[in-house]
Specification:
alpha+beta; five-stranded antiparallel β-sheet; two-stranded antiparallel ribbon; 9 helices; 28% helix; disordered N terminus
Length: 305
C-alpha cells in the first residue's frame, strides 16, 4: 500500500508469488522486508514477504507518539471494510514498543496519483468503471456511518487485478447518522468541500465533493478550483469560480461531475442508491460490480519481481 503522496513508489510483483490474504496472527519479526515504499505523515510503508503464506504484504508503520489520535479509527474502519471489495482492509495488526504495524495486501498497481502522472486524461469508459467501484466503496462506508474525509488520488489504490481499493482511514469520522453534522477542518487542499473550509459542519456529502474533484481531474486534466496557491486562495476559488468544462465533453460525465461539485451541500449529489441510476452509469451492471465480476478500470499488474 503506497503511503500518502507516493506517486512514484512502485514495486513489481511476480505472477508466481501470490498476495497474502490471511486473518491469522502474524509475527512481525518473521517477515522479510524488501524496501520502503515511501513515507507519510505518521510513519512509513514497507514491502514485506511472509514466509508462511509465501506472498507480499504492505506493512504500514505508524509512530505511536504521533498517531494516538487516529489509530483506533484507522483500525476500526479497516476491520469494518473487510465486507467490501473496494475498500482496503487489514490482514494483521502488530506493534513494537515505539510503533504500530498494520499488515495489508500489497497493491501492485500503485495509486491513482501515479496513473494521473502517466496520463492525466482518461477515457469515458475508464472513468465510468472507476466511478462505479468508488460508488460501491463510498456507499458501504456511508451505510456504516463513516465519512472518509480525505478522498484524493493518493488514497485510491490499484490492485494487481486492476480493480481499485479506497485506503487511509485515519482522518475518517465514525458513527455519523443521516442528518448528523460534524465540525472539523480536515482533509487535503483542493479536495475539501466548501462547508469544511467554512467550518460550518459537514456530513457524508463532503465525500461526494472530493469524489467529484477526482472525476473532474480524470476527465479534464486539471483541478476544478484553483490549486496552485495557498489555502486561502483555494477557499476564494471555491466561492468565486465555476469549473470549466471543455467543448465536446461527454454530457453525462459533465452532468454527474456538476452534481457532485455543487457548492450547496443539501443540493449536492449524494452517495445514495439513486446515484446508480444516473445516466452516466447507463452501461454499468451493478450486480457484476458488487460481485467483482465487472471489467476492471485499470490494466493488470503481473510483472516479474
Amino acid at each position: 500500500m503506497p503511503a500518502q503522496g507516493l506517486g512514484e513508489a512502485s514495486v513489481q510483483i511476480s505472477p508466481q508469488r501470490e498476495l497474502v490474504h490471511t486473518d491469522q496472527p502474524m509475527d512481525l519479526y518473521s517477515l522479510e522486508f524488501w524496501e520502503d515504499l515511501g513515507k507519510g505523515s505518521y510513519g512509513k510503508v514497507s514491502l514485506a514477504s511472509d514466509p508462511v503464506n509465501e506472498g507480499l504484504l504492505a506493512i504500514k508503520f505508524m509512530d505511536k507518539s504521533s498517531c494516538e489520535d487516529i489509530i483506533s479509527t484507522e483500525l476500526e474502519v479497516l476491520r469494518m471494510a473487510d465486507g467490501c471489495p473496494y475498500l482496503m482492509s487489514m490482514r494483521a495488526f502488530m506493534e513494537t514498543p515505539t510503533e504500530y504495524a498494520i499488515a495489508m495486501d500489497y497493491m501492485a498497481g500503485g495509486d491513482l496519483f501515479l496513473h494521473m502522472k502517466d496520463s492525466m486524461l482518461f477515457n469515458t469508459k475508464t472513468i465510468r468503471l472507476f466511478a462505479a467501484e468508488m460508488v460501491c466503496g463510498l456507499q458501504y462506508l456511508h451505510e456504516h456511518g463513516v465519512i472518509h474525509s480525505d478522498l484524493k488520488p493518493d488514497n485510491i489504490l490499484i490492485q494487481d487485478t486492476g480493480h481499485i481499493k479506497i485506503s487511509d482511514f485515519g482522518c475518517s469520522v465514525m458513527n455519523v447518522s443521516e442528518g448528523d453534522i460534524v465540525k472539523y477542518i480536515i482533509g487535503t487542499n483542493c479536495f475539501m468541500a466548501p462547508e469544511i473550509m467554512d467550518n460550518e459542519g459537514y456530513n457524508h456529502r463532503a465525500d461526494s465533493f472530493a469524489f467529484g474533484v477526482i472525476l473532474y481531474m480524470m476527465s479534464v486534466g486539471d483541478y476544478p478550483f484553483y490549486s496552485r496557491g495557498t489555502l486561502d486562495e483555494y477557499h476564494q476559488s471555491l466561492y468565486e469560480d465555476i469549473p470549466y468544462f471543455p467543448p465536446g465533453m461527454c454530457i453525462n460525465t459533465m452532468a454527474i461531475i456538476k452534481g457532485l461539485l455543487c457548492k450547496i451541500p443539501t443540493a449536492r449529489l449524494a452517495m445514495k442508491s439513486s446515484i446508480r441510476s444516473h445516466p452516466f452509469f447507463h452501461s454499468i451492471d451493478w450486480s457484476d460490480v458488487e460481485g467483482g465480476r465487472s471489467e476492471p478500470p485499470f490494466p493488470y499488474y503481473y510483472q516479474e519481481y
